[in-house]
Amino acid sequence: MASSLPAIPAKRYFTIGEVADLCDVKPHVLRYWEQEFVQLKPMKRRGNRRYYQHHEVLMVRRIRELLYEQGFTISGARNRLRELVTGHGRAVDPPVLPGLGQELSQTQTHLLAAMLEQSPLESVDAMGMEEVKEELLQIRALLSL
């Protein structure tokens, strides 16, 4: 999946058109997915314009993969995303990151899992160091929510 989609540029916000291009889906599909997947909540500014952050672009790509490539239904994809967050269908205690001494919220856990799942360490060689730095800064920002 990731090899056929363009690289995600190192920037803070993306418009719905940019996300549509980066994820190879139509903007109306993204608006529909916002209604179906609680994890997908882009920021809305004046005029109801949507602005997606990097982790939301990764989430859209994950949803796209589940629906288009793995053949999940909307309901099945929703359940699969929930399983990824809660530990394969069973409730788990919120994870604690070593050294930070704080529990992560469900949203933070989900976002971190999505980012880590979509950015395996093997891809670091293919990415520029600036992109790696930007990705790490975004993860740190998520953890400080």
Description:
The chain is mostly helical and about 140 residues long. It has a single domain, classed as Orthogonal Bundle (Multidrug-efflux Transporter Regulator, Chain: A, Domain 2), CATH 1.10.1660.10. About 50% of the residues lie in helices and about 5% in strands. It has helices spanning about 15-25, 25-35, 55-70, 75-85, 105-120, 130-145; strands spanning about 15, 45, 50. A hairpin with a 3-residue loop joins strand 2 and strand 3. It is globular.
What fold name goes in the CATH topology slot?
Answer: Multidrug-efflux Transporter Regulator, Chain: A, Domain 2
Task: Give the count of helical stretches.
Answer: 6
Helix and strand pattern: EHHEEHHHH
Content of β-strand: 5-15%
Level-2 CATH architecture: Orthogonal Bundle
Ranges with pLDDT <50 over ≥5 residues? 89-102, 119-125
The tally of beta strands, per DSSP, is 3
- How many independent structural domains? 1
Largest beta sheet: strand ordering = 1-3-2
Q: What's the CATH class label?
A: Mainly Alpha
Considering DSSP H and I runs of 4 or more, what fraction of the residues is helical? 40-55%
Distance N terminus to C terminus? 30 Å
Estimate the global geometry from the Cα principal axes: globular
Q: What's the pLDDT, averaged over the residues?
A: 77
* Gyration radius over CA: 15 Å
Task: Report the structural category.
Answer: mainly alpha
Q: Profile the largest sheet.
A: 3 strands, antiparallel
